[in-house]
Amino acid sequence: MLLDAASLYFRAYYGVPESITAPDGTPVNAIRGFTDMVARLVTEQRPSRLVACLDLDWRPAFRVEALPTYKAHRVPGEPETAPAGVPEEVPDTLAPQVPIILEVLAAAGIATGGAEGYEADDVIGTLAATEAGDPVLAVSGDRDLMQIVRDEPVAVRLLYVGRGLNKAENLGPAEVAEKYGVPAGRAGAAYAEMAMLRGDPSDGLPGVPGIGAKTAATLVGRFADWTDLCSAVLDRGDTRLTPPVRAKLAAAAGYLAVVEPVVRVATDAAVDLDRPDTLPAAPADPERLAALATRWGLESSVERLLKALAAARG
């Protein structure tokens, strides 16, 4: 199981009231909510291995160099360097909770992983792409990770929690193909290509003007891969593109030439894990975990996490 940690603790922060505080009055809503999410996921999915994947760079230089608009709208002025594991524009009452979340994970013995210069999506993409033994389940509210789903050599699925854990969707190639109208045989890659054409305002991706989601899905279904599609734009004899669509794509040639590395998750990031990813049956540092639980009023959440670990590995 690969957790998109920032996606989950942001969801916890906004889903759990700030009235949930430590004994000293400090908000701990994100810590409580995140810990409870991990406990629930471990209980329901029973993974043998787990990594909480971190954003060590929420706006990587290689993506900004390719497409300066990438996430630019999220930061007023020049983006500031964020601490490890903390993405952009973190609310004032969330930022102090993130290091505590990482302390809880470390004391529990749950692995965290990051890669300098890369986003959590890239960490997940790399770990999923290089896994050859166990099936993989990524957990995120980020639709971009739909591109990692596959059946071979091991199954890779996305538990999409964009509408919350209660409405989580377990997505593989067949589900992504049905949901977005992309070819099932290469659903993950095709989803990424559809996103390139369609664009994504939340990430500052303009897309191709005049090409919506349905047209984009239809287009990627006609071509073997992104290179095949882009080559057809220059070949007026290629009847897979109608003249109006070719004109729209040709007008966006500059964007099409640079967008691929922006949208595709990396599969070769230098991921560093803080410990082996085997899910522990008992905490790595019980005294530290107990101290954290007492200091921050996390006793019930930590108890649920410990029960989940013991049951999953029992």
Q: Number of domains in the coordinates?
A: 1
CATH architecture: 3-Layer(aba) Sandwich
Indicate the percent of residues in helices. 40-55%
Give the uncertain stretches in residue-range form: 78-87
CATH superfamily: 5'-nuclease
Taking all Cα atoms into account, the compactness measure Rg is: 21 Å
What distance lies between the first and last C-alpha atoms, to the nearest angstrom? 17 Å
* Anisotropy-based shape: elongated
What's the CATH topology label? Answer: Rossmann fold
Q: How are the strands ordered across the major sheet?
A: 6-5-4-1-2-3-7
By DSSP (H or I, 4+ residues per run), the number of helices equals 14
Could you explain how this protein is built, in words?
- With 314 residues, the protein is α/β, with parallel strands linked by helices.
- The chain has one domain: 5'-nuclease (Rossmann fold, 3-Layer(aba) Sandwich), CATH 3.40.50.
- 45% of the residues lie in helices and 8% in strands.
- The chain is built from 14 helices and seven strands.
- It has helices at residues 5-15, 29-45, 61-66, 97-108, 120-130, 173-180, 187-198, 213-222, 226-234, 243-251, 253-258, 260-263, 286-296, 299-312, and strands at 2-4, 51-53, 111-114, 136-140, 156-160, 169-171, 272-273.
- Strand 5 and strand 6 form a beta hairpin.
